[in-house]
Give the backbone structure.
Amino acid sequence: MSAPQPRLLWCGDTAVTIEFGETIDPEANAMVLALDRAVRDGDIPGLVEAVPTYRSLTVHLDPCATEPNRIEASLLALIGAVSTETTPRRLWRIPVVYGGSFGIDLADVAAHHGLSADEVVSRHAAADYRVAMNGFLPGYAYLSGLDPSLALSRRESPRPVTPAGTISIGGVQALVASIAAPSGWHLLGRTPVRAFLPGRDPVFLFEPGDTIRFLPIEPERWDELDRAAGAGECIVECETTP
Amino acid sequence: MRDNAVTGRLVIRRCHGALSLQDGGRQGYQRYGLSGSGAMDRLAMATANALVGNAPDTPVLEFGLGGGSFVMEAGQGWFACAGAPGTLRIDGAPLASHRTATLARGAELIVDPPREGAFVYLAVAGGFEAGAVLGSVSLHLRAGIGGVEGRLFRSGDHLTFAAMESTALGDRTIDAVPLDRDAPIRVLLGPQAERFTQGGIDTLLGSTFTVSHRADRMGYQLDGPAIAHGAGGYNIVSDATVMGSIQVPGNGLPIVLMADRQTTGGYPKIATVISADLRRLAQSRPGDPIRFEAVTLATAREAALRRQRDIADLPGRLRPLGGFDAERLLGANLAGHAVDALREGP
């Protein structure tokens, strides 16, 4: 199957988006992440930074560095040569307290799908998720790989505040939230893991392309793990997989 | 010259509006969801910095629709303000913006809120000192990083800088690069212009919008006629934003994303403000009219190159002021006239 043909879309004079599709599509995301690596390893004139999303890569540029047509030519050359061969991936096991006050929508999601709460937790925690992108707010990891039987369109009225560490689903997407923010997604649980913690090295945990698995834990363990994570300790397992 | 490493200390007696520390911002973290921050009006920041002999992106104090009163608690320093036109007072004596002034120990500096425009920048020779987070001191309020403790300044906070005993800087001034307030804001259509009807694009380019009260460092929501989406609706699979992205949510009212914006968004972006015109939008305040004009990428790049030259040329455009007292008086008169002119306004 041939790779999707990308489009180059200028976003003003400071960025160009290379769009591989308009939908959430694992193949497009694989191309995005492969091109992201190529761009960062390449020598695009005036490159400031590259931002991968589900379906596109946005390359931020210094508009004064060079002519737009030279940038387009450099990008097209990279796109032509890009390979989605698998590279070693990092696998994170993220502890999550599901349900109750930690995941106030778990019962509703279960009722909507005609499943028990335990079955929702077990399906949510059984999947291998891919970090398709980080975005919106610092440390927010948008995941692909949600069990389709759990997919559920967003709430009609978003909540003005949802807690830091919220684990939620919206449509076919899953999310690890880092800091408190408004959200219209369904809240299944919370993790004490800080995806974003200023002053810690690294400040951000998850790279686009990383794999994430959720590990259900008992609410009794929350306080201890939350304290440790807040103090910058590593409470999450990470291994590199071939 | 002896290098006297005295720490200057400026205490905030009172302040209002969005007062924060800003510099050239952060680069490299949008892939983790953290936008760049940095001064909303880069040229004004560079101008204030040039006046006091700093590099263009040296940390400055940014006043967003506000002002404050400051007292020099230790050391002394050369200061300058640039950006939205306003008045300063040192120990009660009015002083024009866009010129240098010294603050001696114990002196009080008052920065009045601007009468027009939105952002004023206060620079000190040597630059304000603060711990950099991810390569920048810029406050990113939503992320809770930068500035002082990741928040806006408030009364009782203090700012430090490497105070200079030297008086070598001298009194000098500069003509501000004009803001060209009446011209339309130039945009490049896209990246999702095709998600709108031709009528929707005509609405964007043919209407006068006004800056709403929902305007801050994250984005400027505009009031005006609703922009019509095409048949595909107003939801897209999230993709990346830039400073200047004009996104149009379901109600059809455009939001221009600014320095502290979300890095990705799920509303289609009809057009993008060109980088050279971002300062003109930034310096618009709630109620100000906004019109847009579509230009080509070549025009946008030409404007960016010109802006780069504007910043590079700043040090060469500084002019020394003659007799200190006379010029100070002149500054006071100019400020006075400006106030009077506004009182006679509509």
